[in-house]
Amino acid sequence: xxxxxPHETDCSEVLDHLYEFLDSEMPDVDRDKFQQHxxxxxxxxxxxxxxxxxxxxxxxxxxxxxxxxxxxxxxMGRIDLIRSGQAVxxxxxxxxxxxx
Length: 100
Known about the structure:
It is built from 5 helices and no strands. It is mostly helical and 100 residues long. It is globular, with a radius of gyration of 17 Å.
């Protein structure tokens, strides 16, 4: 996604690292660049607001449940596959018949 306007930080970079920004998992200098980008780019600001709202909703509804370690590992593995551009299997190939 791109708004078509030139920015110091490209829209694709902002969206690729949006969750790092939301989770405060990036250096302050990068956070400052992203904040400046959001001031200039309404489509990215809208996406940021949507993802922030979803994150708050999930935390409110599910924030007190313990996540099984194996589920977290599976989700993180899928995220890594998506980020690397690899095909993600439609069905989890690591699931046992009881989990499917």
